[in-house]
Amino acid sequence: QSVLSQPPSASGTPGQRVTISCSGSSSNIGTNYVYWYQQFPGTAPKLLIYLNNQRPSGVPDRFSGSKSGTSASLAISGLRSEDEADYYCAAWDDSLSVVVFGGGTKLTVL
Amino acid sequence: QVQLQESGPRLVKPSETLTLTCTVSGGSISNYYWSWIRQSPGKGLECIGYIYYSGSTQYNPSLKSRVTMSVDTSKNQFTLMLRSVTAADTAVYYCARERAFDIWGQGTMVTVSS
Predict the structure, then answer these.
(1) N or C end of chain B: which has fewer CB within 10 A?
(2) CB neighbours (10 Å) of residue A55?
(3) What is the dihedral of CA B62, A101, B34, B88, to 10 degrees?
(4) CA nearest A104 in B: which residue?
(5) How far is A47 from chain B (nearest CA, A)?
(6) B61 close to B73: Cβ distance less than 8 angstroms
(7) Measured between beta carbons, which residues in chain A are less than 8 angstroms from residue B46?
(8) pLDDT by position in tens, chain A (length 110)
(9) β-strands B11-12, A71-76: how paired?
(10) Which residue in chain B has the smallest CA separation from A106?
(11) CA distance A56 to A50
């Protein structure tokens, strides 16, 4: 079982706005930054959001991150077929002294 | 641009030691943390630990007793050793830069089997 909780699946139609949640605790999301990764089948994950809401160069502004208390969210606006992938959240955990991940959310574009 | 490439045996026997090397190209290994992450088939991601270019390390407590990481700045490489492997250690192993994992290697599938 993953330390951070994500819904196993999410879906939306092209152009729609979709959000993926990530729930943690006071020892991880509550006190540390949240990161989001995008992974296509058979490829390595790619950093999508860092420091809760910052986008690396090259990541479209359709992707945004937010954090409140012990939860975080990834929002994708103007959904496109190429956004169909697995999305993972991550954060440092003060109790475990390691980065912990969510179990991942498979996004389907209908 | 900085690129990472994992290398090492794809098949390891139970109870033996898994050793992987990550080669950093297009940039220096200095002044960064370097991480290892694994992903079991069909499952999520697990951070194994990381090493600073100076050699200091931090390991996942669940793997700490079996893990050793090292760095060779002259070769721009860092290495993962995982001892006493079992089938549960079968996974895709990734190396990555920094504790934010901002750059990843392509990953290498390691199978533990006799």
Answers:
(1) N
(2) 18
(3) 40
(4) B44
(5) 6
(6) no
(7) 101
(8) 889 999 999 999 999 999 999 999 999 999 999 999 999 999 999 999 999 999 999 999 999 999 999 999 999 999 999 999 999 999 999 998 899 999 999 999 99
(9) unpaired
(10) B44
(11) 7
Q: Which residue bears the tokens 């990481």?
A: B69
CA B84 from chain centre, in angstroms, equals: 16
Q: CB-CB: which of A50, A56, A99 is closest to B47?
A: A99
Alpha helices in chain A (DSSP H): none
Cα A108 from chain centroid (whole Å): 15
Residue entry with tokens 């190429």: A82
CA nearest to A49, candidates A21, A86, A74, A24: A74
Residue B42 tokens, joined: 């069909």
